[in-house]
Amino acid sequence: MAATTDGTQHEDQRTGAPAPPPGRRPGPVALAVSLLGELLITAGLVLGLFVVYSLWWTNVLADRKADREADKVRDTWSHQETAPGGPGALDTKKGIGFLHVPAMRNGEVLVEKGTSEGVLNNGVAGYYTDPVKATLPTSGKTGNFTLAAHRDGHGAKFHNIDKLRDGDPIVFETKDKWYVYKVYSILPETSKYNVQVLTPVPAESGRKKAGHYITLTTCTPVFTSRYRYVVWGELVRVDPVDSKRTVPRELR
C-alpha cells in the first residue's frame, strides 16, 4: 500500500506490494566518516606496497646485481694467473673478494670499495674509506678491515648479524688466500657517529695493541638506522687457495 495525498494508503498498481518509504540521504558526519574510511584503506594499501617494495623487491633487485658482479670477479680470477701486487690490486670498484659468515646464513657476500648507499644498495658489503680508512688484509699490514652492509632491504646482507657469538668464524676469500677470523667482541648498540669502532686498534672492543682485525657494522634496531650494531673479529690464520678452491674447515 502507498499513502495518498489525503493520508490514505493504496497498493502499488504494478506489483500489488506496498511502495517503499522515501530514502534518506546520509548526513554530513556520515559522509565524512565514509570518506575518511576510504582514505585510510587507500593509505594502508599504499603503505603495504611500499613495505613490500622496500623489504622484498629491493632485495631481489640487489641480489641479482650482486650475483652479476660476483660472477665478473670470479671470472677475472679464473683468467688471471697472477694479480700484480696481490689480490688487493684488483679493480676495487668491481669487488676485492667475498665475505663468508656461516652464522648469518647469507652465503657469500661480495665486498666492494666504499660504504655509500650507492655501493651498499647493490646488495654487497663495502669497506670503509671514510671517516677511517680500512686496512685491507691483502696489504699484509696490521690494522682493521672495517665493513658495512644493509640490515634490511637492498640485499640485507647483515640482517642476521645478531646471530653471531664469540668464537664464530668470519672468513674473507680473495683470489689466492682465505683469511680466517674469529669473533671476540660484540657491541649490540652504539651511536652511528661513533667512529672509534673503526680505528686500526679498536680499543672499544677490548684490544690495546696493533693486530689484524675485522669489523662488521650495520644499522640497529631492525628496520631503523638510529644506532649501529658492531662485531669485531681477529685473524687466526691465513690459508692458501688450492687448485680446487677447497674451503676452510670453518665453512664446511
Automatic annotation (TrEMBL):
One of the Pfam families matching this protein, by short name: Sortase
List, from the UniProt record, the residues annotated as the active site of this protein: H150 (proton donor/acceptor), C219 (acyl-thioester intermediate)
- Membrane spanning stretches: 29-56
Q: Which UniProt keywords apply?
A: Hydrolase, Membrane, Transmembrane, Transmembrane helix
Q: Which CDD domains match?
A: Sortase_E
Q: Which top-level group of life is the source organism from?
A: Bacteria
Q: Show the ranges annotated as biased composition (Basic and acidic residues).
A: 68-78
Molecular function terms, GO-annotated: hydrolase activity
Region described as Disordered:
1-25, 68-90
Q: What is this protein called?
A: Class E sortase
> From which source organism is this entry?
Streptomyces doudnae
Lineage, broadest ranks: Bacteria, Bacillati, Actinomycetota, Actinomycetes, Kitasatosporales
